[in-house]
Amino acid sequence: MTGSSTEVEERCRRIRTRVLERLHAATASHLGTNMSMVEILAAIYTVTDVARISVGASDRDRVVISKGHSAAATYAALEEFGILSTKLMDTYHQSGSLLAGHVSHGVPGVEHSTGALGHGLSVALGMAIAQRSLRQDGRVFCVCGDGEMQEGSVWEALLLWRHLGLSNLVLLVDHNRISSITRTHDVIAMDPPATRFEGLGFIAQTVDGHDVEEIIAAILAALVGDRPTVIVCETVKGKGVSFAEHEPIWHYRSLTDELLVTALKDVAGGMVL
Predict the structure, then answer these.
(1) Pick the CATH number of 5-268 from 3.30.70.2740, 3.40.50.970, 1.10.4100.10, 3.40.190.10
(2) Of 37, 158, 188, 222, which has the fewest beta carbons less than 10 angstroms from its beta carbon?
(3) DSSP 83
Protein backbone atom coordinates (compact mmCIF):
# COMPACT_ATOMS: atom_id res chain seq x y z
CA MET A 1 0.00 0.00 0.00
CA THR A 2 2.76 2.45 0.84
CA GLY A 3 5.24 1.23 -1.76
CA SER A 4 8.70 -0.10 -0.98
CA SER A 5 10.35 0.52 2.37
CA THR A 6 12.79 2.83 0.60
CA GLU A 7 9.93 4.91 -0.83
CA VAL A 8 8.30 5.17 2.59
CA GLU A 9 11.59 6.16 4.16
CA GLU A 10 12.20 8.82 1.52
CA ARG A 11 8.71 10.23 1.97
CA CYS A 12 9.20 10.62 5.71
CA ARG A 13 12.65 12.03 5.16
CA ARG A 14 11.25 14.69 2.84
CA ILE A 15 8.63 15.64 5.41
CA ARG A 16 11.24 15.92 8.16
CA THR A 17 13.50 17.99 5.93
CA ARG A 18 10.69 20.43 5.15
CA VAL A 19 9.85 20.74 8.83
CA LEU A 20 13.45 21.61 9.68
CA GLU A 21 13.76 24.12 6.85
CA ARG A 22 10.54 25.92 7.68
CA LEU A 23 11.06 25.96 11.45
CA HIS A 24 14.50 27.48 10.91
CA ALA A 25 13.28 30.06 8.39
CA ALA A 26 10.53 31.16 10.77
CA THR A 27 12.68 30.98 13.93
CA ALA A 28 9.87 28.79 15.25
CA SER A 29 9.77 26.14 17.96
CA HIS A 30 8.06 22.75 18.55
CA LEU A 31 10.73 20.78 16.71
CA GLY A 32 10.39 17.78 19.03
CA THR A 33 6.65 17.27 18.71
CA ASN A 34 6.73 17.74 14.94
CA MET A 35 9.39 15.10 14.47
CA SER A 36 7.68 12.51 16.66
CA MET A 37 4.55 12.28 14.50
CA VAL A 38 5.88 12.18 10.93
CA GLU A 39 5.19 8.48 10.41
CA ILE A 40 1.74 8.82 12.01
CA LEU A 41 0.84 11.48 9.47
CA ALA A 42 2.31 9.49 6.60
CA ALA A 43 0.21 6.48 7.59
CA ILE A 44 -3.02 8.47 7.92
CA TYR A 45 -2.68 10.23 4.57
CA THR A 46 -1.78 6.95 2.89
CA VAL A 47 -5.03 5.38 4.13
CA THR A 48 -7.23 8.38 3.31
CA ASP A 49 -8.48 9.32 -0.12
CA VAL A 50 -6.46 12.53 -0.42
CA ALA A 51 -8.13 13.49 -3.68
CA ARG A 52 -11.46 13.72 -1.89
CA ILE A 53 -9.92 15.61 1.03
CA SER A 54 -8.45 18.17 -1.32
CA VAL A 55 -11.76 18.90 -3.05
CA GLY A 56 -13.74 19.00 0.18
CA ALA A 57 -16.37 16.35 -0.64
CA SER A 58 -19.11 16.24 2.00
CA ASP A 59 -18.58 12.52 2.63
CA ARG A 60 -14.78 12.78 2.60
CA ASP A 61 -12.40 11.35 5.17
CA ARG A 62 -11.51 13.92 7.79
CA VAL A 63 -8.28 14.36 9.74
CA VAL A 64 -8.23 16.36 12.98
CA ILE A 65 -4.80 17.14 14.40
CA SER A 66 -5.70 17.85 18.00
CA LYS A 67 -2.08 18.45 19.03
CA GLY A 68 -2.17 21.62 16.99
CA HIS A 69 1.35 22.77 17.82
CA SER A 70 2.60 20.13 15.37
CA ALA A 71 1.55 22.43 12.53
CA ALA A 72 4.86 22.29 10.65
CA ALA A 73 4.72 18.50 10.29
CA THR A 74 1.03 18.58 9.43
CA TYR A 75 1.57 21.15 6.70
CA ALA A 76 4.67 19.35 5.41
CA ALA A 77 2.68 16.11 5.17
CA LEU A 78 -0.18 17.89 3.38
CA GLU A 79 2.40 19.26 0.94
CA GLU A 80 3.97 15.83 0.44
CA PHE A 81 0.59 14.30 -0.38
CA GLY A 82 -0.35 17.06 -2.81
CA ILE A 83 -3.03 18.80 -0.73
CA LEU A 84 -1.01 21.92 0.15
CA SER A 85 1.02 23.85 -2.40
CA THR A 86 4.76 24.31 -2.04
CA LYS A 87 4.28 28.04 -2.57
CA LEU A 88 2.02 28.23 0.47
CA MET A 89 4.26 25.94 2.53
CA ASP A 90 7.16 28.29 1.90
CA THR A 91 5.26 31.01 3.84
CA TYR A 92 5.01 28.94 7.04
CA HIS A 93 4.84 31.13 10.14
CA GLN A 94 5.64 34.27 8.17
CA SER A 95 3.78 37.55 8.62
CA GLY A 96 0.44 37.44 6.82
CA SER A 97 0.61 33.71 6.04
CA LEU A 98 -2.33 31.33 6.42
CA LEU A 99 0.12 28.88 7.99
CA ALA A 100 0.35 29.79 11.64
CA GLY A 101 2.38 27.96 14.26
CA HIS A 102 -0.72 26.05 15.30
CA VAL A 103 -2.95 24.13 12.88
CA SER A 104 -5.58 26.52 11.53
CA HIS A 105 -8.85 26.01 9.69
CA GLY A 106 -8.87 27.68 6.29
CA VAL A 107 -5.70 25.90 5.23
CA PRO A 108 -6.37 23.19 2.59
CA GLY A 109 -6.82 19.85 4.33
CA VAL A 110 -7.28 21.32 7.82
CA GLU A 111 -10.69 20.60 9.35
CA HIS A 112 -10.41 22.48 12.64
CA SER A 113 -8.18 25.02 14.35
CA THR A 114 -6.37 23.43 17.26
CA GLY A 115 -3.63 24.22 19.70
CA ALA A 116 -5.80 24.89 22.70
CA LEU A 117 -5.20 21.29 23.64
CA GLY A 118 -7.97 18.87 24.51
CA HIS A 119 -10.61 19.94 21.99
CA GLY A 120 -9.82 18.00 18.85
CA LEU A 121 -11.26 14.63 19.86
CA SER A 122 -14.63 16.20 20.74
CA VAL A 123 -14.76 17.86 17.31
CA ALA A 124 -13.70 14.64 15.58
CA LEU A 125 -16.40 12.74 17.47
CA GLY A 126 -19.00 15.25 16.30
CA MET A 127 -17.85 14.70 12.72
CA ALA A 128 -18.11 10.92 13.15
CA ILE A 129 -21.63 11.25 14.58
CA ALA A 130 -22.63 13.40 11.59
CA GLN A 131 -21.13 10.91 9.14
CA ARG A 132 -23.12 8.09 10.69
CA SER A 133 -26.33 10.13 10.88
CA LEU A 134 -26.03 10.99 7.18
CA ARG A 135 -25.11 7.39 6.34
CA GLN A 136 -21.89 8.54 4.73
CA ASP A 137 -18.83 6.35 4.24
CA GLY A 138 -16.23 8.88 5.35
CA ARG A 139 -13.89 8.05 8.22
CA VAL A 140 -12.52 10.43 10.84
CA PHE A 141 -8.95 10.29 12.14
CA CYS A 142 -7.81 12.22 15.20
CA VAL A 143 -4.26 12.62 16.51
CA CYS A 144 -3.69 13.59 20.15
CA GLY A 145 -0.49 13.99 22.12
CA ASP A 146 0.09 12.00 25.28
CA GLY A 147 0.49 15.20 27.30
CA GLU A 148 -2.83 16.33 25.87
CA MET A 149 -4.45 13.17 27.23
CA GLN A 150 -4.23 14.79 30.66
CA GLU A 151 -7.03 17.17 29.63
CA GLY A 152 -10.41 16.27 31.14
CA SER A 153 -12.27 17.17 27.95
CA VAL A 154 -10.51 14.32 26.16
CA TRP A 155 -11.92 11.80 28.61
CA GLU A 156 -15.43 13.24 28.32
CA ALA A 157 -15.20 12.68 24.58
CA LEU A 158 -13.84 9.16 25.11
CA LEU A 159 -16.75 8.26 27.38
CA LEU A 160 -19.35 9.49 24.89
CA TRP A 161 -17.53 7.84 21.99
CA ARG A 162 -17.49 4.49 23.77
CA HIS A 163 -21.16 4.88 24.70
CA LEU A 164 -22.10 5.49 21.06
CA GLY A 165 -19.84 2.70 19.84
CA LEU A 166 -18.73 4.50 16.69
CA SER A 167 -16.20 2.58 14.64
CA ASN A 168 -15.79 5.23 11.92
CA LEU A 169 -13.52 7.25 14.21
CA VAL A 170 -9.93 6.27 14.95
CA LEU A 171 -7.80 7.98 17.62
CA LEU A 172 -4.02 7.84 17.34
CA VAL A 173 -2.02 8.94 20.38
CA ASP A 174 1.51 10.23 19.89
CA HIS A 175 3.08 8.64 22.96
CA ASN A 176 6.49 10.32 23.13
CA ARG A 177 6.42 10.61 26.94
CA ILE A 178 7.25 14.31 27.05
CA SER A 179 4.71 16.96 27.92
CA SER A 180 5.94 20.44 27.03
CA ILE A 181 9.03 20.89 29.19
CA THR A 182 8.88 17.77 31.37
CA ARG A 183 8.13 14.04 31.32
CA THR A 184 4.45 13.10 31.22
CA HIS A 185 4.80 10.67 34.12
CA ASP A 186 5.99 13.53 36.33
CA VAL A 187 2.74 15.41 35.67
CA ILE A 188 0.10 12.66 35.58
CA ALA A 189 1.32 9.07 35.31
CA MET A 190 -0.80 7.08 32.83
CA ASP A 191 1.57 4.34 31.69
CA PRO A 192 0.82 2.04 30.08
CA PRO A 193 -1.86 4.12 28.33
CA ALA A 194 -3.44 1.16 26.53
CA THR A 195 -4.76 -0.17 29.84
CA ARG A 196 -6.62 3.11 30.44
CA PHE A 197 -8.45 2.80 27.15
CA GLU A 198 -9.14 -0.90 27.59
CA GLY A 199 -10.63 -0.13 30.98
CA LEU A 200 -13.22 2.04 29.23
CA GLY A 201 -14.06 -0.74 26.78
CA PHE A 202 -11.97 0.34 23.81
CA ILE A 203 -9.80 -1.88 21.69
CA ALA A 204 -6.33 -0.49 22.29
CA GLN A 205 -3.50 -1.28 19.92
CA THR A 206 0.09 -0.34 20.73
CA VAL A 207 2.38 0.07 17.73
CA ASP A 208 5.81 1.36 16.78
CA GLY A 209 4.98 4.97 15.99
CA HIS A 210 7.89 5.18 13.54
CA ASP A 211 6.82 2.19 11.45
CA VAL A 212 4.38 3.40 8.78
CA GLU A 213 3.30 -0.09 7.72
CA GLU A 214 2.55 -1.10 11.31
CA ILE A 215 0.47 2.01 11.90
CA ILE A 216 -1.45 1.46 8.64
CA ALA A 217 -2.20 -2.15 9.61
CA ALA A 218 -3.57 -0.96 12.96
CA ILE A 219 -5.73 1.71 11.27
CA LEU A 220 -7.17 -0.77 8.78
CA ALA A 221 -7.94 -3.26 11.56
CA ALA A 222 -9.71 -0.50 13.48
CA LEU A 223 -11.85 0.45 10.50
CA VAL A 224 -13.15 -3.08 9.91
CA GLY A 225 -13.84 -3.73 13.58
CA ASP A 226 -17.14 -3.16 15.37
CA ARG A 227 -15.70 -1.49 18.49
CA PRO A 228 -14.04 1.91 18.89
CA THR A 229 -10.26 1.68 18.68
CA VAL A 230 -7.42 3.76 20.07
CA ILE A 231 -3.96 3.30 18.57
CA VAL A 232 -1.09 4.14 20.92
CA CYS A 233 1.93 5.05 18.82
CA GLU A 234 5.20 4.64 20.71
CA THR A 235 7.37 7.49 19.46
CA VAL A 236 10.51 9.48 20.19
CA LYS A 237 10.19 13.22 20.63
CA GLY A 238 12.65 14.85 18.25
CA LYS A 239 12.94 11.65 16.18
CA GLY A 240 15.77 11.70 13.67
CA VAL A 241 17.62 14.73 15.06
CA SER A 242 20.52 13.64 17.24
CA PHE A 243 20.60 16.57 19.65
CA ALA A 244 16.79 16.76 20.05
CA GLU A 245 15.76 13.16 20.63
CA HIS A 246 14.24 12.65 24.11
CA GLU A 247 15.14 16.24 25.06
CA PRO A 248 12.19 18.24 26.50
CA ILE A 249 13.87 21.59 25.81
CA TRP A 250 13.31 21.09 22.08
CA HIS A 251 9.65 21.76 22.59
CA TYR A 252 10.64 25.43 22.75
CA ARG A 253 14.07 26.03 21.20
CA SER A 254 14.59 27.33 17.68
CA LEU A 255 17.25 26.10 15.27
CA THR A 256 20.40 28.14 14.77
CA ASP A 257 22.14 28.06 11.39
CA GLU A 258 24.69 25.59 12.74
CA LEU A 259 22.11 23.29 14.31
CA LEU A 260 20.06 23.29 11.12
CA VAL A 261 23.06 21.92 9.23
CA THR A 262 23.49 19.18 11.84
CA ALA A 263 19.79 18.31 11.84
CA LEU A 264 19.61 18.11 8.06
CA LYS A 265 22.65 15.84 8.01
CA ASP A 266 21.03 13.62 10.63
CA VAL A 267 17.84 13.25 8.62
CA ALA A 268 19.71 12.73 5.34
CA GLY A 269 22.01 10.19 6.99
CA GLY A 270 19.34 7.55 7.44
CA MET A 271 18.46 8.01 11.10
CA VAL A 272 14.77 7.85 10.23
CA LEU A 273 12.78 4.60 10.36
Answers:
(1) 3.40.50.970
(2) 188
(3) S
